[in-house]
Every structure is written in C-alpha cells, then in structure tokens.
Amino acid sequence: MEFGTPLVEMKNISIAFGGVQAVDDVSVDLYPGEVVGLLGHNGAGKSTLIKILSGAYKADSGEICINGTSVTINSPRDARTNNIETIYQTLALADNLDAASNLFLGREITNSFGLVNDDAMEAETREIMARLNPNFKKFASPVSALSGGQRQSVAIARAVYFNAKILIMDEPTAALGVHETQMVAELIEELKRQGIGIFLISHDIQDVFKLCDRVSVMKNGQLVGTENVADVTEDDVLGMIILGKQPEKAA
Ligand SMILES: Nc1ncnc2c1ncn2[C@@H]1O[C@H](COP(=O)(O)OP(=O)(O)OP(=O)(O)O)[C@@H](O)[C@H]1O
Ligand SMILES: [Mg+2]
C-alpha cells in the first residue's frame, strides 16, 4: 500500500496539559488515497493528536511533514494552507441555509458587480455532488432538513471543493444509522479514488475494518502500534486498545 512520499508524517509529537501528558512521542503517517484509523479508549489522545495537525493545538515537541517538507501549523488557517481540512462530528453548518450556501459559506462566488451569484454556486454544488454523492437531491432545502449522512456529504463536498488533500474525520459515523453510515463509507471510497488521504477517528471497530487501510492504536497518550488492517484480526486490535499488547505475528 505505502510507496513514495507520505502525504503526512507526524513525528515524535508530544503535548501536555498541565500535568497530563495527552500525547507522548507519537509518530503516525498517511499516504495519498489511504485511510488510517486512529483507535484507542476515551482519553487515549486521539483528538489531541489530530488537533495538532488541524492547527487547534501547538505541539510541545515533534515535527510535521507534508509531502516530505517540514511545515509549521500554528492555526487552522495554516492547516488549510497545507490543504488539510477537518470534518468535525458536530458539523459546522448553517442550518437555515441550503447546501450550496453552506458549501461556499465565507467563500461565496460573486459576479462582476460583487453580488453573490447563487446560480453559479448551485451549479458548482450540483457538479461536485454528482461526483461525491449522486443520490443527493435536496439542493433547495435548508441543511436542517437533511439527514446526518447528507449533512456529512455537504461538509465533505466543501472540503473537497476547496482542494483538501488531507481530511481529518473525528467520529464521522457516530451519530448515524446503518444506511447513513453506508453513505459515508461510499463517500470515503470516492475520496480515496481521488487520492485524498484520510485520518479517521472511530470507536467502531467494524467500521474501521471496513473503511481503513491501516490502524494506529493509542493508549494513555502513547502509540501502541500501527498495523495493516489486512494483517490483523479484530481481536488483535482489541488487544492493542485494551491491553496495549502487540499482535502476535503469524510466522
Ligand atoms: N484542552 C485540554 N485541557 C486539558 N486536558 C485536555 C485537553 N484536551 C484533552 N485533554 C486531556 O488529554 C487526554 C487526551 O484527550 P483526547 O481528547 O485527545 O482523547 P481521545 O482519545 O480523543 O478520547 P475520546 O475517545 O473520548 O474522544 C485526556 O486525558 C484529556 O482529559
Ligand atoms: Mg476524541
């Protein structure tokens, strides 16, 4: 699976909050078109690690490389400059606006008079949705009328439209039903085909086995290990999460 230069390398990342070592010398990486699952118990440090990549926190030590080049990410804006976008579980969508207005929120298309060009925005939204989620039809509805999975696809469309190469998804399927989870799974497959790399935080080990190429397991702020999903069983991964135990390798 892995060849060439990683999209993302987080090397020896540490951060403490007061006396709590939330992330302790953790290294993870991500290749184009790959989904890496981040697993671990509550408080293991998954969200904190990923917030360092999204610019919400600054690491006490360690290095981040994007496409092999060391970068400084001190703010969400720096993350965006590096084509990193985060899809939060609590999606930041404006409920009373439709899909197109949400997709372009803060970055509206304007005409030569400086007026917002709703038709152009809707046409662009229809085009990207036809690629990402062809079943999406609710272009005229406020997003408050959309299902969780449909809202998720609007958020993902926004990231992709603005050139995300690296997507961070923190518990994307946590609040979704079976059908909706399947919709997000199909979206993730499409994003992979486009060469986008995804860090996926999830507590659902079955989702992780279905969606991820590799898993990195954290426990008490430390990295237990990283494994190819194809090389381990669900029990192996549970052993890593619960006991911090390395899987036994077949000879
Ligand atoms: N802003 C903060 N201030 C103080 N402590 C924090 C802060 N953010 C996280 N922590 C602590 O850092 C540790 C790691 O938390 P983190 O949110 O990264 O865990 P997590 O693996 O994402 O857990 P969950 O599965 O519950 O989302 C925890 O002990 C948490 O209490
Ligand atoms: Mg978390």
Automatic annotation (TrEMBL):
Keyword Ribonucleoprotein: no
Keyword Metal-binding: no
A GO term from the CC aspect: plasma membrane
Gene3D superfamilies to which the protein is assigned, alphabetical: P-loop containing nucleotide triphosphate hydrolases
Record's bilayer topology term: Peripheral membrane protein
Pfam families per UniProt: ABC_tran
Chief location of this protein within or outside the cell: membrane
Subcellular location: Cell membrane
PROSITE patterns registered for this protein in UniProt: ABC_TRANSPORTER_2 (PS50893)
CDD domains membership: ABC_Carb_Monos_I (cd03216)
InterPro entries (alphabetical): AAA+_ATPase (IPR003593), ABC_carbohydrate_import_ATPase (IPR050107), ABC_transporter-like_ATP-bd (IPR003439), P-loop_NTPase (IPR027417)
GO molecular function: ATP binding; ATP hydrolysis activity
ABC transporter domain ranges (all copies): 8-245
Keywords on record: ATP-binding, Cell membrane, Membrane, Nucleotide-binding, Repeat, Sugar transport, Translocase, Transport
Signal peptide from the UniProt entry: none
Identification of the protein by name: D-xylose transport system ATP-binding protein
